[in-house]
């Protein structure tokens, strides 16, 4: 039976199997090469195994004496303060067994999210080399843990003198100046411009893809921006660094602040994830942004995901938010004086609420129910069950009628353009008004309906008479209820009644607002309600506006084309006039009940102490002791009480006699007092003033953040993670305006974080390599067989490459597509090799094409 050339490889495989089974195979010219190859491979494998065992034995046998480690700590590792964090375990013979990092072990939960985190030095490192300890000391993860450790000691007052400079850079570590010097002037200018563009993207709530388009546009305008750091991924990193710089400034402010309060609110984002936003309120008597006044700052701290929005989850979110700035719980609770939130039981519960959990660590905590929420609830209580239910129902259904039908909205606009009435409100579409909306939104919806009342009613008349309208019966019912003089006059009345409450609500929503401003606005709102009580119904502004636009005849009263019988209009006016005082008194009483509780009494006392504009008048009536009871309202030690009262009387006399506080804003007066040469004598009373300015009043700013959250994390950007989303919101909330943002220090901080490559060129694409073929031994007998070249090609394609140890005996030859070798000889190249250890010589040559 004829043999094929592939039988050679089958025999070779069988020979290998036979040898593995312990059978004896005679050495022939066909098998000698395979046998020698296997022997060579085995020898190489044994040598590699011996080297590995030797290396492992050397690593295992490495010893480190305890005295040597102590020398490292005192000399080589001294710059990183290794005496603080480097611990070790001994094997009982004075030799080190393991090395551990104490600070990384202590703060493992805080640092495990860092990119370079490793638990090797927490469990114990057996790599007993000096370079290993030096590398660990230089990691960002270790420096973060060390920073937390130092802050913890500082808060306890246990920081020793030899640890005053605990974060000195390692000699091999790149310093800030070294990293920044790597950028030349051109590269520095390019990088600053890119940081500005990234800041613009985040500040304007734009997607990161716009960064690449802006880079292209700037290059088109001739701006030199280089070829690196131009993609959307780098835009995200630039935004993170910008936000980190803002957070670093906030950390410095909180470190200087004597007290602060925390404000929280919760909601869900577009990915249906529970979010808790945390803000911090603190007082800055030496504000750089406003050099003439003291400043109460309400700053965005963090946006946290909460697994469950219960008291424990919210409290944990608060602590984690401060920890993200490096403020540990000990420092947090030592300065925390207030907690502001809405009135939900999860926040205000006396036993298991967030307030109760915070009071366990800060018993002096003052809980403040947001005054803006209280005001909204007061107005809701006053109007509930009154005729405003009908007015509110009209506002809601009008909004739904046109919001859900573009056709009806188009017809309404055409009718509005045809009518020649004088309109004061610009909007044509009705605005929404639900019970959970702010008073200001209710007022805006009422004003639009009053201004376009005739347009809406005429359009409803047209729709209710159009047989093609499917819901015309429902519209007829609307028309019977709303097309009445009584409804028109009540809309005008509620505009006048809600206007003082809306002004107060807007004042409470200012960011930030202190107790002086809150009490001032509350008193002004009550005065406005009292003035409305004393005015006649016809003199109310909105009612007077309606009466002036009426076209009265003997039988009808017409308002914007809507006719009312005279007798029915007069009767409705009398009914609405009779209810005026009832509605105003109801709002007045509910506001007093909501805003004048025990906490409000304390709030008024605080405002009385801080409002320097009234000090002179009060001192003339009651003397310098007019606020003694307020200052000592909280229990203090007797010695402290006496000292603080003496300082209070001295400061009060100085202010009244020399500063003319009645003519200046109270914030300006306090700036003068804190910078006064006598301030060192009043340190106790000024400390109390800082505490009073840090009491929270309103958290309406937090609700506005959720509007930004919905715009930022839209349906198309639901993949934004917690950290990146927090950074974007931090820039939107706390970032300076675009015109005043300076990216130079941000670039400096970015350059110092790790090694950058500003000179990196764009990488070229790899070219596809030409196909190469490996050729193997072919015996003379097989070479003279009648098998086709296709069988050879099959062997070549299916046979593995020769081992690396035989690479010296193998040459590569490129084969063109037409089957010729690179020399153009017109023959298929089958390069063979011979084994030098074989006694039989192998045939070496080329196989002809016609084989």
Automatic annotation (TrEMBL):
Classification via Pfam families: zf-C17orf113
Ranges of Acidic residues composition bias in the record: 785-794
Domain of life: Eukaryota
Region (Disordered): 1-60, 751-834
Origin species: Paramuricea clavata
Bias type Low complexity, positions: 23-46
Bias kind Polar residues: ranges: 8-22, 817-826
Protein name as catalogued: Zinc finger 862-like
PANTHER family: RAS-ASSOCIATING DOMAIN-CONTAINING PROTEIN (PTHR46880), ZINC FINGER PROTEIN 862 (PTHR46880:SF9)
Residue ranges with Basic residues bias: 754-775
Sequence ranges assigned to domain C17orf113 probable zinc finger in this UniProt record: 96-148
InterPro entries on file: RNaseH-like_sf, Znf_C17orf113
